[in-house]
Amino acid sequence: MEDHDGTGSLRSLFWAHPLLSLCIIASALRLLLAPFFTYDFDVYHWGIILENFQSGNGLYQVAGYYYTPVWGYILGFISVIQNMFLNMDAYGWKITALIPMEMLNCRYHISVETTIQFIMSMKVPLIICDIVVAYLLFWIVKERGDVRKATYAAALWLFCPTVVYMSGVQVQFDTISALFMLITTILVYRDRCFLAGMMFAVSVLLKFFPGFCILVLIGYVYAKHRGDGRYLNRIMQSLLGAAIMALVIIIPQIMDGTVYDSLSFVIGRMGSPTDLISQLQSYTGILIALCGMVWFGMKMFRSRNDPDSDLFLCLFGALASSMLISSTPQYMIVVMPLLIYHMVICDRRFWICWLLISLGTFEAAISINNFSLLASLSAYTGLVDPATVIGLMQGMESAIFLGMDLVVFLNSTGCYFCIIGFILVLLLLFEEQVAKAFPPFGRWMKKL
Question: pLDDT tens digits, residue range 330-344?
Answer without folding.
Answer: 999 999 999 999 999
